[in-house]
């Protein structure tokens, strides 16, 4: 209290605590604004991904277990959580896998831009007829078990390179979406797809 008493004497004032509180609030507000600006301009956050819809139209393993025919369409979203920086995505390579085995027929999504705090939604399609596949014995067993139910657990993976606006670093990025899909049957009502959160894998490098 001695400090404030001396200060009041020097300033010849009544030590109005209300004014002190107001100035304190102003200083805190300015400090908070500076912190927000630092976060907005200096810190970047990776996108958030979800699988919003997906349809499995064909999924058939040949009797020899060496080839597979499949057709999957999906709608995915990438949300840019950054307040200030937009994101430029390079072309996205799309691959499908079952029981840890990746199929040989990839798909692609053209390059696009995602503005700050916006969500980019796009469709992907992967498929092929009589494509070579090397399922392990447990993989074949799992396929037959899931084929009995008409529901399959597959994984959709997208690989790309992104670049944050205002930065030169190009950052490799992978999006992994585990999907439980019901094989479409015209005579049976399909189960509604449940929106699924995807995993983001990004490079651990400066600027990413």
Automatic annotation (TrEMBL):
Domain Late embryogenesis abundant protein LEA-2 subgroup residue range list: 75-166
GO CC field: plasma membrane
Record-given protein name: Late embryogenesis abundant protein LEA-2 subgroup domain-containing protein
Cellular localization per UniProt: Membrane
Residue stretches spanning the membrane: 20-45
Domain of life assignment: Eukaryota
BP term (GO), one: defense response to other organism
Coiled coil: none
Main location: membrane
Membrane topology: Single-pass membrane protein
Species annotation: Arundo donax (Giant reed)
Annotated keywords: Membrane, Transmembrane, Transmembrane helix
InterPro entries, per database record: LEA_2, NDR1-like
Pfam families named in the record: LEA_2
């Amino acid at each position: 209290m001695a400090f404030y008493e001396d200060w009041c004497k020097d300033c010849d004032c009544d030590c109005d605590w209300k004014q002190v509180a107001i100035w304190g609030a102003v200083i805190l507000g300015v400090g908070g604004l500076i912190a927000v600006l630092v976060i907005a301009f200096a810190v970047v956050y990776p996108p958030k991904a979800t699988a919003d819809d997906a349809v499995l139209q064909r999924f058939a393993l040949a009797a020899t277990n060496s080839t597979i025919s499949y057709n999957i369409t999906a709608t995915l979203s990438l949300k840019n959580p950054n307040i200030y920086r937009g994101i430029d995505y390079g072309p996205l390579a799309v691959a499908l896998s079952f029981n840890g085995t990746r199929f040989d027929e990839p798909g692609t999504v053209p390059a696009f831009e995602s503005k700050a705090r916006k969500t980019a939604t796009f469709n992907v399609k992967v498929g092929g007829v009589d494509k070579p596949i090397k399922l392990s014995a447990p993989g074949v067993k799992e396929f037959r078990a899931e084929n009995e139910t008409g529901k399959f657990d597959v994984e959709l993976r997208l690989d790309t390179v992104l670049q944050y606006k205002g930065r030169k670093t190009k950052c490799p990025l992978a999006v992994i979406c585990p999907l439980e899909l019901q094989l479409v049957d015209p005579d049976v009502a399909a189960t509604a797809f449940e929106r699924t959160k995807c995993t983001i894998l990004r490079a651990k490098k400066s600027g990413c």
